[in-house]
Input
Amino acid sequence: MKLRILGCSGGIGGNLRTTSLLLDHDVLIDAGTGVGDLSLAEMCMIDHVFVTHSHLDHIACLPLLIDSVGFMRDKPLVIHATDETLAILKQHVFNWEIWPDFTQIPSLHQPILRYERVVLGETVDLAGRKLTPLPANHVVPAVGYQLDSGKTSLVFSGDTTTCDALWEAVNRIGNLEYLIVETAFSNAEKELAIVSKHLCPSLLAEELSKLKLDPKIYVTHLKPGEVELTMQEVSECVKGFVPKMLQNGQVFEF
Output
């Protein structure tokens, strides 16, 4: 399995892109603004989108992706998400007011878009590639994902704050090699992090103290303008691990 980082920023500007990860050539984990850098040919190859939650920075390019290449495809694009997230997408995005309901286009019998529910802890197997929703704690219903090649696993936390259930699940992954975890705010904004259910470096340190494994750790979702400060604070706060900053364009093979 190969995971390519299309976007990993908490905002936009310059070369910054919001959260989207491309698994092999046909699966997206979230569909933030990083999707816009793909060619039409690359977008046409995407068959599945696994959504962590409904916030705009994680779904911004989803409507445009479907509109751009849906009619070029011979089968529906499948959005995988929890019942709660699917309900939000149906009510607030694909509702004919913000964007067309592509589950009805060109017809109910041959739609461009199809929804598939995921359930916490239940694995979706795509030709031997196993994707499992993991617990997360955010201001809207959210999950992270374990991506398991059979040989090794990568975990993406999605957006979350303190979440014991996440670390209990992660600690059961015997083949964990990579952990991508969010840290959206600097320590000066700890109260904002708590209210918005994100992490800051001091909270990240507390969360990583619950980790009993030793994966390579990468920090994502850094806010524009605070990248250097936040990573410096991460290096000062986190003990026992050496988290690195996730980079746009980075590739993980596992």
